[in-house]
Amino acid sequence: MDLEYRINDDCIVSEVKEVFIRSGIRRPVGDSDRIQRMIDHADEIITVREGSKLVGFLRAITDYSYCCYISDIAVDTEYQGLGIGKELIRILRDKLGEDICTNFSTESRRIL
Fold first, then answer.
1. pLDDT at 74
2. Cβ distance 6 to 51 under 8 Å?
3. What is the arithmetic mean of pLDDT over 59-86?
């Protein structure tokens, strides 16, 4: 399995919707405009791909000074249990630095 992690990767709505569905978390996947706004207004997005297939997605809002709120961590159920969610968080923390406190949405925690 060759997984590629990307910071602020360009994502299209359809693939984000699919990984949300395949991950088991509940998001407004029936509203493409809303998903697009979620992507557009995120401060940080980290993706995981196997080839061109999106298998993991992290979306965060941050002030780049003190706090970071991770609003989505979605990992395709076929890829869960491989440490992908933890690696997404590690990459985000490395990018933002140790001074920033990371917070999670309640639903995102169950993916880890």
1. 97
2. no
3. 95
Helix axes 13-23, 32-40, angle to 10 degrees: 100
Q: Where are the domains of the chain?
A: 3-109
Per the listing, tokens 């933002």 go with: 96
- Among residues 47, 40, 39, 53, the alpha carbon closest in space to that of 92 is found at 47
Instruction: Kindly report the pTM of this predicted structure.
Output: 0.88
Tokens for 98, please give them.
Answer: 């140790």
Residues linked to residue 60 through DSSP beta bridges, in sequence order: 44, 70
pLDDT digits (tens, 9 = 90+) for 13-71: 999 999 999 999 999 999 999 999 999 999 999 999 999 999 999 999 999 998 999 99
Burial 39-58 (b: 16+ CB within 10 A, else e): beebebbbbbbeeeebbbbb
Please state the CATH superfamily assignment of the domain spanning residues 3-109 in this structure. Answer: Gcn5-related N-acetyltransferase (GNAT) (3.40.630.30)
Sign of the CA dihedral running 43, 44, 47, 52: positive
Residue whose structure tokens are 């949405």: 105
